Amino acid sequence: MSRIYDVAVIGAGVVGMSILRELTRYRLKVCSLEKMEDVAEGASKANSGIVHAGYDPIEGTKKARFNVEGNNIFADVCNELDVEYKMIGSLVVAFDDYEINVLEELLQRGKRNGVKGLEIKSQEWVFENEPNLSRNIKAALFAPYSGITNPYKLTVALFENAIQNGADVIFRFEVCKIEKDGDYFVVHSADSRFIKTRVLINCAGVHADEISKMAGAKLFKIYPRRGQYYILDKPEKMPVARVIFQVPTEKGKGILVTPTVDGNVLVGPNSEYIDSKDDTATTQEGLDEVFEKARKVLPSLSKRDVITIFSGIRATPDTHDFIIEEDEDVKNFINVAGIESPGLTASLAIGRYIAELVSRKLNAKRNLNFNPYREDIKRFSKLSDEEKERMIKLYPSFGNIVCRCELVSEYEIVEAIKRGARTIDGIKRRTRAGMGRCQGGFCTPRVIDILSRELGVSKTQITKFGKGSYILTEKRWGK
Ligand SMILES: O=P(O)(O)OC[C@H](O)CO
Ligand code: FES
């Protein structure tokens, strides 16, 4: 296989997919190269899903610029892509005078970064508006334009819209060598495929330092920094209405408590440097740290409500800021690296910035057929009874519930497969089948059946996330 492109993006996380989608606004042949079987397999599937206001990053940094720009456009892009985004606001809570001073610093920094609406609220205001928070809280910084989204659904939506507009995404393409051939980069995969491209963009997340080195470009280091989380069952009444942060420390923004757009409660993350870039284990120590710190803010937090735990790995750069630049020595090689928090918020603005930069560089014309709109899969759980009836008449499989915890129909699972899901996790992230209270105990075998039927492969070929993560084996004993 060999294909020739104008632009190739390495890595199909939220940043890579945002850049890819923005590139399709121009008349360019573009692709993304992804080593896994699906999009959002790295940090994009395991983070807090927070759309930050922009008071945290130091003024003048790329983090500050793209955080604020990203926040400003987030609602519009989510609207175009039919992705949930709720601007619920956030509080940073302070427990003593020292922390109240930190709130003041954050307020001033936020103003310098161009963040609107920041206010320090009194203890009374906090208790009136967030009655379940600890009575030891003395004040809080309120940011009305902070919000929440679903990070992997956003990545999927960007991917689908990029494909709709003519981009290619090549999966299972693990980049192992990058060479120059005249004006082209030749990018080789571990399984002996290659593509050629005029511009190469490095969005390889925790592996971005290795890719930059492979291209002979800037040397930097990405340190994997893990964060562990709890997800709580959907409560009858949300214990918090906003994203609740504690004051940041040198370890980051600290452990937060937030509603998710899907109606669960998310608690985490801690912050620990680890040796392996792939070590997404959770540990008792890490989870205990998360729970204790979160309980300080929300004393009613109970482990009885936990339905699952997970960890995600931040791509922390040794430069202390996002690395977003064309390489000084390797022309047409662009690093978009070290995109740790607030990377999700920044991703949409980074996409626009890079696509404009590349279009100028290649003198590309506008793609007049670009369609910014993408429609989400119709969801059984979201429709009224009349709408459900109408859908079931049109598509009988809409009336067959596969995941009873999250009320996901067979129609939704088949639709997710048509749109590119190939694994159990791919189905889970697109439909929520497996994300309910029983964590897939009931629905996973049925999802395997549907994947096997729709893809025309045996059930033993179905994986959780590709790369040998098989669920079933052939029967090898007895009759
Ligand atoms: O601890 P930080 O600063 O990396 O931030 C992690 C937050 O959960 C970001 O949403
Ligand atoms: S039935 Fe799907 S998560 Fe419980």
What does this protein structure show overall?
With 479 residues, the protein is an alpha+beta fold. The chain folds into three domains: 1-86 and 145-221 and 318-376, FAD/NAD(P)-binding domain (3-Layer(bba) Sandwich); 87-144 and 223-316, D-Amino Acid Oxidase, subunit A, domain 2 (D-Amino Acid Oxidase, Chain A, domain 2, 2-Layer Sandwich), CATH 3.30.9; 380-461, BFD-like [2Fe-2S]-binding domain (Arc Repressor Mutant, subunit A). The protein contains twelve helices and 22 strands. It has helices at residues 14-23, 62-81, 97-113, 123-129, 151-164, 208-214, 284-297, 343-361, 385-394, 410-418, 424-431, 444-455, and strands spanning 2-10, 30-33, 50-51, 85-86, 90-94, 119-122, 139-143, 147-149, 168-170, 175-181, 184-189, 194-202, 222-232, 243-246, 256-259, 265-268, 272-273, 306-317, 323-326, 333-337, 401-403, 408-409. Strands 1, 2, 9, 10, 11, 12, 19 and 20 form an eight-stranded mixed β-sheet that branches. Strands 13, 15, 16, 17 and 18 form a five-stranded antiparallel β-sheet that branches. Strand 11 and strand 12 form a beta hairpin. The mean pLDDT is 97. Bound molecules: SN-glycerol-3-phosphate and FE2/S2 (inorganic) cluster. SN-glycerol-3-phosphate is lined by residues 48, 50, 252-253, 256, 269, 271, 314, 340-341. This is FAD/NAD(P)-binding oxidoreductase. Residues 401-452 form the BFD-like [2Fe-2S]-binding domain. Residues 6-357 form the FAD dependent oxidoreductase domain. Pfam families: DAO, Fer2_BFD.
> Please, how many domains?
3
Shape estimate? globular
Please state the oligomeric state of the protein chains shown: single chain
**Unreliable segments of 5+ consecutive residues:** none
Summed over residues and divided by their number, the pLDDT gives a mean of 97
**Span between termini:** 43 Å
Output the radius of gyration: 23 Å
